[in-house]
Amino acid sequence: MGGLNFNTIFNVPTIIWMFDYEHNLSTLLDRIALTGLALSGLVIVLGAANWFIMLTLWVLYHSLVNVGQRWYGFGKLIILSMRNSGWESQLLETGFLATFLCPVWSLRQMPRKTPTSFIIIMGYRWLIFRIMLGAGLIKIRGDKCWRDLTCMNYHYETQPVPNPMSTYMHQAPEAWHKFETLSNHFIELVAPFLLLMPRPFCLLGGAFQILFQVVLIISGNLSFLNWLTILPNLACYDDASYSWMFSKRVLKQVAELQKSNMNNSTSAPSIDIGMYIRRVFNIGVGLLVAYLSIPVVQNLLSSRQAMNTSFDPLRLVNTYGAFGSVTKKRTEVIFQGTYSNDPYSPNAVWEEYEFKCKPGNVMRRPCLISPYHYRLDWLMWFAAFQSFNQNPWLVHLAIKLLANDEDAVSLIAYNPFAGKQPPKFIRAEHYKYRYTKLGTNETVGGAWWKRKYIKNYLPPLSMQSAKPILEQMGWKKPKIKQN
Q1: What DSSP state is assigned to residue 108?
Q2: C-alpha 219: how far from chain center
Q3: How far is CA 40 from the centre of its chain?
Q4: Residue 319 pairs with which residues in a beta bridge?
Q5: Residue 331 pairs with which residues in a beta bridge?
Q6: How far apart (Å, rounded) are the C-alpha atoms in residues 254 and 243?
Q7: Which residues lie across from 461 on neighbouring strands?
Q8: How many CA within 13 A on the CB side of residue 298?
Q9: Cα–Cα distance between 332 and 210 in angstroms, integer?
Q10: Three-state DSSP state, 318
Q11: Where do the DSSP E strands lie in 276-385?
Q12: Which of 279, 192, 278 is nearest to 236 (CA)?
């Protein structure tokens, strides 16, 4: 705490600064996560929330995101630069707005004198507008393949974590892929304007966006991103649009509540502090969002548009974008371990580690995990088109695998040295992966992928040779688990 100053706290707001985090950071992070889990469970059980619960959840998650570094940002390791995680910022912005849809302190499922704020509804429409338009503009300004309509020729094969449907969608005719690209441009560049128009157009715009997200959910494992993006679209629909989803009993209660609110508005108003607090804060939130949107709009109009960036430390209004460039070839980093004393011997037997979802064993069917998020698998995807020097965390992971570290091993699907002595050496190899074509002998034989060796990615590393790295990086030597 002694090295902290106001600038650090302002740029990286987190409740962790309030605690002695130097010696028990892992425990502290666990407690923050468990507290958030408990409060979220309470909201699910009660079917209701208030400002205090929602803001506490927002603060807790914000605290994790701001110290999550690469694990939460998929960007630079420098903590003050960790404002490039579009998903986390989108979740925080969505949760912040949701707070003001709730009563101040009531926990009723149908609270009285808590009318839905038009300002917050428009805040959600403005959010989905920015998400989609930002994604569309970054594509048009980015990779040439979005302009010549060839990006979808590659996307399904090279996306971070494909699912079983991805291989079939990849092998559709090229004409269909061009239609997909054109449809993407319409959804992201034209349809968003419907969201800001009167009811009939807004209903249509919301339908376009929800359908688009459902297609993305079917086509790949983009984690909770698509599910999260569906949420602000719900603001395009009113009570009449949702009435079919509820029982007659609930509809009757809602009608009585609406009638009561109408009667109160025409008669002498009764004093309700919570109601007036909500009105004042809703206006304040509207003004705040308008002010914080200025740099966001400037960014959207700029030819040097930034993608997934926050312009304020609290991530209240952010700019978004996705797949501004599309990888044309899929490469994978494959970890291997051996008991051989000479890792360079042609007789050394190397056994492969298998991650939970990313491609590895060519015979393994792609996983289906959305909306869950295997963050390590995503980081491995990024590392595959970079070098290990750009990803020191990957070297740290290799060192932990050398010790059969329980925490590290729990993040992967298969450890060939489980229940045995840890390997003497770990290395990482670089492979090019492609889908097997439907109807070929490879596919009939059960192979989903075919791979071709490129080169060594991480040279063989032993615990002895890792000592200088541990000292240089300030990492603790993992305790070797003996079996």
Answers
A1: -
A2: 16
A3: 18
A4: 309
A5: 432
A6: 10
A7: 426
A8: 8
A9: 32
A10: strand
A11: 309-310, 318-319, 330-338, 351-352, 354-355
A12: 192
DSSP lists the bridge partners of residue 20 as none
Are the CB atoms for 399 and 466 separated by under 8 Å?
A: yes
| Dist CA 17 CA 415 (whole Å) | 37
Chain centroid to Cα 426, Å, comes to 30
Amino acid at 285: V
Residue 367: count of CB within 10 angstroms of its CB: 20
| Tokens linked to 341 | 């004393």
What the block records as the tokens of 13 is 């707001």
Structure tokens at 212: 């688009």
Is 338 strand, coil or helix?
strand
- State phi, psi for 459 to the nearest 5 degrees: -60, 155
**Cβ–Cβ < 8 Å for 135, 321:** yes
Return the structure tokens found at 417.
Answer: 């040295």
Encode 374-386 in three state secondary structure: CHHHHHHHHHHCC
DSSP conformational letter for 186: I
Cis peptide before 371, with omega less than 30 degrees from 0?
A: yes
SS3 category, 426: strand
Give the predicted TM-score (pTM) of the model. Answer: 0.90
Local confidence pLDDT in tens for the 483 residues of the chain: 455 677 777 778 888 888 877 778 888 999 999 999 999 999 999 999 999 999 999 999 999 998 887 787 653 333 333 344 678 999 999 999 999 999 998 998 888 888 889 999 999 999 999 999 999 999 999 989 999 999 999 999 999 999 999 999 999 999 999 999 999 999 999 999 999 999 999 999 999 999 999 999 999 998 899 999 999 999 999 988 888 988 888 888 888 887 776 666 555 555 578 788 899 999 999 999 999 999 999 999 998 898 888 888 889 999 998 888 899 999 999 999 999 999 999 999 999 999 999 999 999 999 999 899 899 999 999 999 999 999 999 999 999 999 999 999 999 999 999 999 999 999 999 999 999 999 999 999 999 999 999 999 999 999 999 999 999 998 888 887 766
DSSP per-residue letters across 212-279: HHHHHHHH---TTHHHHHHHHHGGG--HHHHGGGS-HHHHHHHHHHHHHHHHHHHSPPPP-HHHHHHH
- Side chain identity at 67, as an amino acid letter? V
Contacts of 56 (CB under 8 A, 6+ apart): 39
Looking at the DSSP assignment, which residues form a beta bridge with residue 435?
449
Distance CA 295, CA 298 (A): 5
- Rounded to 5°, the CA angle 173-179-182 comes to 145
Which residues is 434 bridged to in the sheet? 450
The single residue listed with the structure tokens 């008991």 is: 339
Question: Position 2: which residue type?
Answer: G
The phi, psi pair for 330, rounded to 5°, reads -100, 125
